[in-house]
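Work Package 4 report. The design task specified in the project plan requires that, given a folded chain encoded as structure tokens, an amino acid be chosen for each position. We show below one input record used in the internal validation round.
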């Protein structure tokens, strides 16, 4: 459930609303962001109870985006773009990092391995920043993490291993297969949530950045899966 809130100006506002909304019955988790003016609520609470809690905290709430003179956004699409901007910037940096590494002789295979290696370095690092919160967030949409809790705790370490494997060029075939398996499972879970239109926080770069689960997650995984299949075909050819 996404609620648009007017009147937030700082992190203190976020803390006030987060505490108030968490008191509502059947709220499992809540992410409040004053920059986008939103509260992403997980669980099955009564909307009227949520609205009442927000109102009693001194703010106004709506299920629809409301443009105001001080608003930084003009639509829900702009809001999503702003939330995903950190992910886009990270992917651009990874792309140019891999490109720079192969600037002398641009080999597609080496570029892909460096891209994937840098990808896993950055993404595993962000997961370790808030390691305790990652497993529960990841299990909300990854089928295997939901069934096997240990896998969710192990996942950042798997990404760390894959990063070293691709960058140092060892056990490439097995690492490609592992990448296809773990990203394939995650992509299936993401698609399921998107089809059901469920609002879930994306844990692809950990929980430090409040990113929503959107089509961008599928595109990101799709790029990595395409590179994996390409490299597997090239290596085994």
């Amino acid at each position: 459930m996404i609620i648009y809130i007017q009147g937030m100006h700082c992190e203190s506002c976020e803390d006030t609303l987060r505490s108030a909304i968490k008191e509502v019955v059947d709220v499992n988790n809540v992410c409040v962001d004053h920059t986008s003016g939103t509260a992403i609520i997980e669980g099955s609470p009564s909307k009227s109870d949520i609205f009442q809690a927000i109102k009693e905290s001194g703010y106004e709430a709506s299920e629809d985006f409301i443009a105001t003179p001080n608003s930084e956004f003009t639509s829900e699409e702009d809001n999503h773009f702003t939330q995903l901007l950190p992910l886009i910037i990270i992917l651009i940096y990874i792309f140019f990092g891999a490109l720079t590494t192969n600037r002398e002789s641009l080999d597609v295979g080496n570029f892909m391995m460096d891209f994937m290696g840098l990808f896993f370095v950055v993404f595993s690092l962000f997961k370790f920043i808030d390691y305790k919160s990652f497993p529960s967030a990841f299990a909300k949409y990854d089928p295997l993490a939901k069934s096997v809790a240990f896998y969710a705790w192990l996942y950042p370490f798997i990404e760390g291993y894959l990063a070293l494997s691709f960058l140092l060029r060892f056990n490439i075939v097995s690492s490609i297969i592992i990448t296809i398996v773990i990203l394939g499972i995650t992509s299936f879970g993401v698609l399921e949530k998107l089809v059901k239109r469920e609002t879930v926080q994306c844990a692809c770069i950990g929980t430090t950045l409040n990113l929503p689960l959107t089509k961008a997650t599928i595109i990101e995984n799709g790029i990595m899966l395409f590179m994996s299949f390409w490299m597997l075909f090239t290596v085994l050819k």
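Confidence is low (pLDDT under 50) at residues 65-76. Validation will be extended to a larger panel in the next phase.
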